[in-house]
Amino acid sequence: MELIKKYFPNLTAHQLEQFAQLDTLYRDWNAKINVISRKDIDNLYEHHVLHSLGIAEVIRFKPGTEVMDLGTGGGFPGIPLAILFPDTHFHLVDSIRKKILVCTEISQALGLENVTTRWCRAEEEKGKYDYVVSRAVMPLADLVKIIRKNISSKQRNALPNGLICLKGGELEHETLPLKSHTDITALSDYYEEEFFETKKVVYTAL
């Protein structure tokens, strides 16, 4: 939790309380449904919450922005971003029913009125969004093919609508087909913890 305060010092008391609740909520749910590796639950704030908030180093969503979190798993990056941006709507989608159950229950426990959830495959989701965010491991080009249909033509933010992914490692080969409209931001430029040395935010305009 101190990590979140360190990098986001301007949070309201309400946001701080919501972030603080994540530890108990995820530990409780993880004991029933494994959404975070049991070995990794002690690293919740560094490996999952702060990692999710890395997207905020690339864009600060304007109020009214619509965002879909595809392959959200246990709610990352969607839930931490929904706490940080209470005036942005986040639609969390995953093909695994029990994971969406966890997302729904945690969002309700936190009082996040800006979160909706849906259990479906990416191909089934027809809604339009300013951005699709994802921490999924699917190759970028494959993800773009699936979500292109979901990107709204109406622009609300300075950053053109598109896909924002959290990825790690060497990305030159993967981003090559989309190179002309893709930007890679190293999270090591913002966060000093060793975990972020290889972590990137990949933005593709669509």
Q: SSE layout and pairings?
A:
Elements: H1 2-7, H2 13-32, H3 44-53, E1 66-70, H4 78-84, E2 89-94, H5 97-110, E3 115-119, E4 131-134, H6 140-147, E5 162-168, H7 172-175, E6 182-186, E7 199-205
Parallel strand pairs: 1-2, 1-4, 2-3, 4-5
Antiparallel strand pairs: 5-7, 6-7
Helix pairs in contact: 2-5, 3-4
Which short descriptors sum up this protein?
alpha/beta; 7 strands; seven-stranded mixed sheet; globular; 206 residues
Concise structural overview:
The protein is of the alpha/beta class. The protein has helices spanning 2-7, 13-32, 44-53, 78-84, 97-110, 140-147, 172-175, and strands spanning 66-70, 89-94, 115-119, 131-134, 162-168, 182-186, 199-205. Helix 2 packs antiparallel against helix 5 and helix 3 (44-53) crosses helix 4 (78-84).
Report on this model:
With 206 residues, this protein is of the alpha/beta class. The chain has 7 helices and 7 strands; from the N terminus they run αααβαβαββαβαββ. The protein has a 7-stranded mixed beta sheet, with helices on both faces. Strand 2, helix 5 and strand 3 form a beta-alpha-beta unit. Helix 3 crosses helix 4. The longest helix has 20 residues. The radius of gyration is 16 Å and the shape is globular. The relative contact order is 0.15.
